[in-house]
Design a protein that fits this description.
Blueprint (H helix, E strand, L loop, with lengths): L13 H12 L6 H11 L2 H12 L4 H7 L8 H4 L7 H11 L10 H10 L8 H21 L5 H14 L3 H16 L5 H16 L17 H7 L10
């Protein structure tokens, strides 16, 4: 006999649950980027407030959020000025080797305005909306600095790394979708997914928070020196 279903009112918006399950079925068909925006439409005020409290309690967050730093668009040609071993050279190599030229050099201030005009930032607190845009701009730098590759294990490990350093619903949803998919659809993915998540989580917890740095202004510095400064390892484990 099945257990009775509670008659208590739902907390999680049920229209979001339907979309969440579409992503759980086929994560690549309905990605977390779309799911993240879906969640905001029906998120409880309590959950939003809790995320904001978490964000503001992170050391270094207050001043960075107040400034609202968004770097100017980059060009691949401009990155060619950086010599071997620098962050700029490593960033350029990462972009070229992973065929990321199409989205490279995006104007993120214009991107932020576009999201607002499309209503994608509705209900989203200003600081959280800013961190979403800045986090998107920072993403490839995170790969280069942490050593995680642009692969499925690398992306999962980096999502966990992000979540360990800055509580953000996007990364929490990515972990939730992945674990639900492996639990209910593809159990062979449990071990590699958990290996990536655990590695990223402990890596992020044991390195300096790298989300509030202006990495675009430090591209002439040696990558190894920056990694040592932030207690980052120089050998990737989830490439």
């Amino acid at each position: 006999m099945s257990a009775p279903i509670t008659d208590k009112p739902p907390i999680v918006d049920r229209s979001f649950v339907d979309k969440f399950m579409v992503s759980v079925d086929r994560p690549l068909d309905y990605g977390v980027y779309f799911l993240f925006h879906d969640w905001w439409e029906g998120a409880t005020t309590e959950a939003i407030d809790a995320y904001m409290e978490e964000l503001h309690n992170i050391p270094g967050a207050t001043d960075f959020l107040k400034e609202g730093y968004i770097a100017e668009p980059l060009t691949v040609e401009g990155l060619r000025d950086y010599g071997p071993g620098t962050l700029g050279a490593a960033y350029r190599d990462f972009v070229e080797e992973n065929n990321l030229i199409e989205n490279f050099g995006r104007d993120y201030r214009a991107f932020q305005k576009q999201l607002k005009s499309f209503g994608k930032l509705d209900r989203m607190p200003e600081d959280m909306a800013y961190m979403m845009v800045r986090g998107t701009q920072l993403h490839d730098f995170m790969h280069v600095l942490t050593g995680y590759g642009a692969t499925i294990p690398g992306e999962l490990a980096l999502a966990s790394y992000y979540l360990s350093q800055i509580r953000f619903p996007y990364h929490a949803i990515r972990l939730a979708v992945t674990m639900a998919h492996t639990a209910l659809v593809a159990p062979k993915g449990v071990v590699p997914s958990m290996d990536a998540f655990v590695d990223g989580w402990y890596y992020g917890r044991n390195s300096t928070n790298i989300n509030f740095e202006k990495w675009e202004e430090r591209m002439g510095e040696p990558l190894a020196v920056l990694q040592a400064e932030m207690n980052l390892r120089q050998i990737a484990k989830a490439a």
